[in-house]
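Batch job 17 of 40 flagged for manual review because the log was empty.
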Amino acid sequence: MEKVNALGRRKAAIARVIVEEGNGQITINKRDISVYFPSSILQFIVKQPLTLLDVAEKYNVRVNLDGGGYKGQAEALRLAIARALVKINPDDKKALRSAGFITRDPRVVERKKPGQPKARRRFQFSKR
């Protein structure tokens, strides 16, 4: 099996992933996952598609992560890994879809409008 590329996005975060056969090592921006995501919850989110298919120890994952916060980055990475696993074995798509790992979350920050302090917040009304 050669390298498989995939892309995942969530909010402002973009994860570019290269999955290849290996021993289960996940490297994010040239750092180990435990260094990049010290929180065990975020590590769990990233590894969800791999553990669902029982292939956590079968593939090495190299990641280029950019933009967003740590939660958005973790979820973008989860989507990218799921997409790469579908490219490797299309039969896994049904299981990943039912777990909700294939769906791209379309929610992004609403833009600020002119004449308002935030997207929907108006300036305080003054009668006098």
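Reviewer: the log was empty due to a logging misconfiguration, but the result itself is present. The two ends are 73 Å apart (CA to CA). Unflagging and moving on to job 18.
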